[in-house]
Each structure stands twice: as structure tokens, then as C-alpha cells.
Write a structure and sequence with these properties.
This protein is α/β, with parallel strands linked by helices and about 375 residues long. It is about 50% helix and about 10% strand. The protein binds zinc ion.
Length: about 375
């Protein structure tokens, strides 16, 4: 088994931490599931392998008995800002990209994370969030899309990349809408207010965002595969993205397929035949069983080049999730790469190289480096 504790982790997909009062009152169970249903949280989450394994991990971390009551007691007494700094250091996460489009009122902003965490933090711009902020201020789809383009061009000057959650809304089978469908969708979403739900409008906005990303040379992350029950998982298979990937205008676009479970083989296939496609196993690690995490990494490597596979935490809300995800990312990579050596796919030296590629080098090469003022504002 390769030991990887010393290797720095570039976490290329995560979200912010809870503001302290929310962290103090949030139920422990909610961190270990994608479900919202209170009955699932209370009755069934404690019966998952992820929850049971994590209780033991966290009790080891805090030095308490491995049960939820003992954990609640010890967590109630901790210094939250110190815990956040400490767990990022223990996780040896040395670079962080934050998608700040999730729960912006409940989680730290990118600027707050930059002030409070001991590492460089960069923003990933969620295209659909920018669209939703602009929608109430426009009365025609043309001016809305032009304004979106302008916002993305401006934000893209310093962002590490863009992100799309269109898989959560209307699925990955994105196509240019007809003008009539776009007009109709725009009117409906504008009247309804809040979250944009119309496929024509979402597709048009995404295509505009992809054009900006292509022009700026920025990668675009796509949520794919499993996630919370907002999504129709049939439409979240990355195979639906073929239309986008094959569009001649996007030939130089780099697309990162996030999470991928259970479509890991499909994602690995796409990475093996399309130059711009990369894949990630965040969320799959650590939200599944030890066996599933190892299987997913093996399946990604069935076809994907090592240099196109990335790992993220997809952590949010509590610093414990970053630490758990980093711990199991290293353990999974260590176990699977050792097996590839035993089976004859890689030499020991090649496995060491592969571990660095997965944890750090692939992300460094793919994403935009911090601009000068961001580096200056980072005080370790
Ligand atoms: Zn995420």
C-alpha cells in the first residue's frame, strides 16, 4: 500500500463552510447523505456504511468513544475557527477551488475562506447562479444572455474556472433552443421567479457560458452522476454531453466531469477519446463504501489516462468532511495504485508518479493559477 500522507492535495471542487451558529446547530446525520427527507436522515442514515465508518474516523480524530452522543459532546466544546484551520492542515489540502453558488447565505464566501483558511482559495463561477441573479433585471432573452456573457467575461478574468449544475435542472442533453422556445422559457421563468427551470433558457445560457470559457481558455466543471434528489439521474449520465463535446466551436474547451458515480466507466471512456474531457471522483469518495471507492478508481482507470483523472472533496458545511474526503482519497489512491503494481499495469515508480498526478499535478495544469492580487491577499 502506497503511503500518501506527505503528498499535498489540490482540492479542485468544494463549497464553503457553515457560518459558526449554523455549524453549532446542524444535525450530524445530514453530513452523511445526499437525502433531504427527515425520515431518511433520522431512521436510515445511521445504517449506511459511510456513516458508520465516519463515526469511527471522527472519534479517532477527537479521541472520544465511537458513537454519535460522544461526538456531539466533544464537538460542542471545540473552537470552530481553529477546527477549520486545523482540519485543512491535517488533510494536507494546500489549494482550494470553491463553487460559491451553493447556499450563498449559509456558507462562507470565497473572500471569507481566503481570510480564515491557511491556503490559497480561488473561485469557480457557477453559470446558473449568475443567470438567476440577472433574470429579474431583463425583459428579453437576448439582453439577458448578453448580460450573462459580460458578467462571465468579467468574472472569468480571475476565476479558476466555471461550473454548471445543468444536470440538476434539465439534464446534460444540451442543445441550442429555437428562438420561440427560448422566448417562451424566458417568459415562464421570469414570471415564476427564483430558480431557473426551463430547458431552453438553461441550454442557451450554458452554451453562451461555454463560448466564454472557450475564449478565455478556462475549464468548465459539470456535475454528473449522483447527487441530491433534485436531479433525474437518467439525464445526469455524462454520455449526454456528447453533443456539446462534439460541437466544433468547443473543440478546445476543457470539460471536467465531476463525481460521475455510477457512470464512472462512461466518464473514463469519454476522457479516453475526447481531448478536452477530464473526470473527477469527488463525492463518490468518500460518500460510498471502501469497496465502492476502490472500484470507482479502478473503473476510471479502465480507460482514462492518468493525466485526466482528478480527485476533489466536494466537501461543504463542516471542516470534518474535507478531512474525511482527503483521508479516503489518499487511502483509496494508495490501495488502488498498489494493486495496479501487483497486477503489472504500473511499476512502483509509475504508481508514485500517478499518485502525484491525481492529487495535485493534473489540477495545477488544468485550472487558471491565482492572479497576483489573490496571492497577495492570502496570509498563511
Ligand atoms: Zn459540489
Amino acid at each position: 500500500m502506497l503511503e500518501l500522507e506527505h503528498l499535498a492535495f489540490y482540492d479542485h471542487h468544494a463549497h464553503g463552510l457553515y457560518h459558526e451558529p449554523l455549524w453549532r446547530t446542524a444535525p450530524l446525520e445530514a453530513y452523511f447523505t445526499e437525502a433531504y427527507d427527515p425520515h431518511i436522515l433520522q431512521r436510515f442514515v445511521p445504517d449506511t456504511l459511510f456513516y458508520r465508518r465516519s463515526l469511527r474516523d471522527l472519534s479517532e480524530l477527537y479521541g472520544c468513544d465511537p458513537n454519535a452522543d460522544a461526538l456531539r459532546e466533544v464537538r460542542a466544546g471545540v473552537d470552530y475557527p481553529a477546527l477549520c484551520r486545523d482540519l485543512f492542515q491535517r488533510a494536507n489540502i494546500q489549494h482550494l477551488l470553491l463553487d460559491d453558488g451553493f447556499w450563498p447565505d449559509r456558507l462562507w464566501s470565497v473572500a471569507q475562506a481566503r481570510e480564515r483558511l491557511p491556503l490559497p482559495v480561488q473561485r469557480v463561477v457557477r453559470i446558473e447562479s449568475e443567470l438567476e441573479l440577472l433574470l429579474p433585471h431583463h425583459d428579453a432573452p437576448g439582453t439577458l444572455l448578453d448580460a450573462l456573457e459580460q458578467v462571465l467575461r468579467e468574472a472569468g478574468r480571475s476565476a479558476a474556472g466555471f461550473k454548471s449544475i445543468i444536470a440538476y435542472r434539465t439534464g446534460l442533453a444540451v442543445e441550442p433552443p429555437t428562438p420561440a422556445a427560448l422566448e417562451r422559457g424566458f417568459r415562464q421563468d421570469r414570471e415564476r421567479g427564483g430558480r431557473v427551470q426551463d430547458k431552453a433558457l438553461l441550454d442557451a445560457a450554458l452554451l453562451r457560458g461555454l463560448q466564454v470559457a472557450t475564449d478565455l481558455g478556462l475549464p468548465v466543471q459539470f456535475h454528473t452522476g449522483y447527487g441530491d434528489p433534485d436531479l433525474d439521474m437518467r439525464l445526469a449520465s455524462p454520455l449526454h454531453l456528447r453533443g456539446v463535446i462534439e460541437t466544433p466551436a468547443f473543440r478546445d474547451l476543457q470539460v471536467v466531469l465531476l463525481h460521475c458515480y455510477p457512470y464512472v466507466r462512461e466518464a473514463g471512456y469519454l476522457a479516453s477519446v475526447y481531448r478536452g474531457v477530464y473526470l473527477d471522483l469527488g463525492l463518490t469518495i468518500p460518500y460510498t463504501s471502501v469497496s465502492a471507492m476502490q472500484t470507482a478508481l479502478h473503473e476510471a482507470l479502465h480507460l482514462s489516462p492518468i493525466s485526466k483523472l482528478l480527485i476533489s472533496t466536494d466537501a461543504q458545511r463542516t471542516p470534518e468532511l474535507y478531512w474525511l474526503a482527503a483521508r479516503w482519497a489518499r487511502r483509496t489512491i494508495g490501495a488502488v495504485l498498489s494493486q495496479t503494481v501487483a497486477l503489472g499495469d504500473l511499476t512502483k515508480a509509475e504508481a508514485d508518479w500517478a499518485a502525484s498526478r491525481l492529487l495535485w499535478d493534473n489540477a495545477v495544469e488544468l485550472y487558471r493559477a491565482p492572479v497576483a492580487e489573490e496571492q497577495a491577499s492570502h496570509t498563511p
